[in-house]
Predict the structure.
Amino acid sequence: MASLTPWHRLATRPAEPSARAEVRTICVIGAGPSGLVAAKHLRDVGYTVTVLERSSKVGGTFVHKAYDDARLVSSKYLTAFSDLRSPTTAADHMSLPEYVAYLEEYCDRQELWSLMRFGTEVLRVTRETVNGALVYNVETRASEAYPADAGGAAQAGEGRTRTAQFDAVCVCSGLHEVPYTPAIAGADSFDGVSLHSCEYKERSLFKGRRVLVLGCGETGMDLAYRAVHTAAATAISVKRGFLAVPYEGWGGVPLDTLIANLFEHCHEHWLLHALHVKWAVTTVFIRAGFWLTTGSSAGWDQWVGHVEQVKRGHHILCKSTAALPFMNRPAKRKTGPDAEDTPLSNQHSDAYSFGTPLY
C-alpha cells in the first residue's frame, strides 16, 4: 500500500522522514469544480475522501457569486472535464445555471455525492505528529441548517464545532473565495453605497445612481455594461490597461478554440522564452490584425485602456466586451451611415473610462 503515498505530488511535505506515514484519508475543502475533480481522482486511486462544503450545493463561486445573466467566457469545449463532455444542447458559452447543472451531472456520473458533507464550514486546519505520523486536524462547524451527511440528516446545533483527523488536506476553496478590496484614501468617508463585485446580484441596484466601477477585468466589464443601461451615469477606473477580445471569435467560433492551436502550444526554447521573443513577434501581428479588422490596434474595437505590448500568457484577455462600445464613445464618436447598423444606435449612454494611480 506504499503506492498510496505519492509524496512528490502533495503540496506540503512533512519536515522529517519519520513523519512520512501512509496517507489513507484525505479531506477536500470545497465542492467547486476543482474540489469535485480532485475528489474523484483521489478516490479512484484508493484514498478515503471526504469533501467539506459550507453551502448546500456544488458549484462554489459559480453559485454563490453568480449574478444576472452571467455566462462563462471560456467555451464548453475547453471548460469541460476530460471524462464528461458538455451537453450538446448547451450554448457554446454556458450560463452559470447550465454550468452548475453540468457539475451536478458530473457528481451523478462519478458517484461523488456520498463523499459530500454539505453545510460544513472549515474554521481552521492544524498539523501535529501522532505516534510519529503527521496528521491534520480539521475544525468545522455547521454554519447553516443544510444537510451535512450523505443520509440527508441535518447537522444540528448551528455554530457547534467539530474536529476530525485526516492524513492529508486538499484545499480547493478557489482563487476568488476571499474578496480583495484595496486600501483607498478617503474611502471611509464616502457616504454612498460601496460594495465588492462578489456582492452584486442584479442591475436594479444601479438604477438612478452615479456608478463608478473599479477594475476592468471581466466581472468589472460585466458590471459596467449592466450599469450603463440602468444608472444615471457610469464610469470605469482602468489602472494598468487591458486587452479586450470578444469570447466569440471570427464567425462565432469560440475564441479559446482558435487560440488552442499548434503555434500557441508548440515547444518554445528556454532562451526564446527568457528573452520574450514570442511577445515581441506576436505583438506586431496581433496589433496589425486588430487595426485591419476594427480600426484600432489597442484591442478588438478597443479605443481605451491601451497596453503597450501584447504579452500572451502574461496579460489575461478580457473576453467580456459588451461594455466596450459605451466606453469607446467618449474617445471616438462614431458617425456616418454605418452608425445605424450598430446595436447601440438607439442608445445614448456613455461609460467614461480613466486611468488611476497605482494604489
Observations:
- Confidence is low (pLDDT under 50) at residues 1-11, 145-156, 334-347.
